[in-house]
Fold this sequence. Notes:
Elements: H1 5-13, H2 19-25, H3 28-36, H4 40-45, E1 60-70, E2 74-81, E3 88-95, H5 101-117, E4 126-130, E5 140-144, H6 151-157, E6 166-167, E7 170-171, H7 178-185, H8 204-223, E8 236-238, E9 244-246, H9 258-264, H10 276-281, H11 286-300, H12 316-323, H13 336-345, H14 356-373
Antiparallel strand pairs: 1-2, 2-3, 3-5, 4-5, 6-7, 8-9
Protein name: Tyrosine-protein kinase transforming protein kit
Main location: membrane
Subcellular location: Endomembrane system; Membrane
Amino acid sequence: MYLSEKEINEFIKGLGLKFDGEIAQGQDTEKEQIESKISSDLLAQNQPYDSQLEISANELTFDHKCPIGSGQFGTVLKATFKRPEPSLTVAVKTAKPNLNAQYLRTLLKEVKIMMYVGQHPKIVGLLGCCTANLRKGELFLVLEYCENGSLEKFLKANRARFVNIVEKGILHAEKCAASDYLKILLGLELPTPLQSDSTDIFDIYRLITWSIEIAEGMEYLATKKVVHGDLSARNVLVTADGKAKVADFGLSRTIYHYTHYAKNGREPLPWRWMALESLKNSSFSTASDVWSFGVLMWEIFTLAEQPYPGVSSLTSNFVQNLEQGLRPTFPPFATSEIYNIMSCCWDEDPKRRPLFSRLLCSLMEIQSECREKTSRRPSSDSDYFE
């Protein structure tokens, strides 16, 4: 479980590579050319650890009765961070004791990648680290806490509260309850969180909003040249006020090779979300993230159904079917325009897939068009009900 002294020093001081100086001294166009040749992972790992992130384990009070998640290599616990006034609820990720040092190395790389990415309102943020006992194999990542958990679980738990106002790919606003629908339509209040003890309802506008928020987060990652590699509803978290944030970015592709995982059975391969070139050649890029985003949108507009439900496992036949045009079917709660956006994400040629900036614009246009279509609403609330 223990790291070498060289690994610890490289984490604290950075790799010591000199291309940062070359970038700083070059002209603007030269900087872009140099940066384009350097991977985001290398730029991230070359950074020295930011000591301002360091917090003491004594400043954390763990809630061991309520673990957020636990995997083969690590655990995520809910905790209270005492330093802010008032105190702050956080999520703390740590490696399980007595494991191979490789997972600890993964956490160190995650710290550097999150430092490199920085803060963004649609990205789960790094708040601090506990590295004092790093030589003893102990490391805590203190992360932003998202009260409503993963988007996948959130959608499944709230299916009964969803009001469908789409029929055969066409929006029918008159089917939505006026009291909630008009608030969303007129922007009188943001979508509220759907708690387990709540009777709130939601509809397509909330689904579009989540899609936009995730696209905003992914557009930002793309500007930083960070490839997520495992974008799905289970890796998007929902805050207390109902906003979607991208989590667990930049690790699946850069730290472990998917093929390595598949061969050793150490982690299920997320093949249902993977682009064709990722399955065939283990090629990951922003374009492959766009493919995954399309599948994630499909999850959202089916309320977290499993993609390719008729396919039980990854086979060469499945990959061949993708090459021949197999794609996720039309979701029941999407309009035709929304499904067209998904379909563009699944172009066999990565170069023909839209950029996240384009996807974001398209989704915002659809949101605006939906509002225009429903602006000629009935004169009284009672007219909304058939």
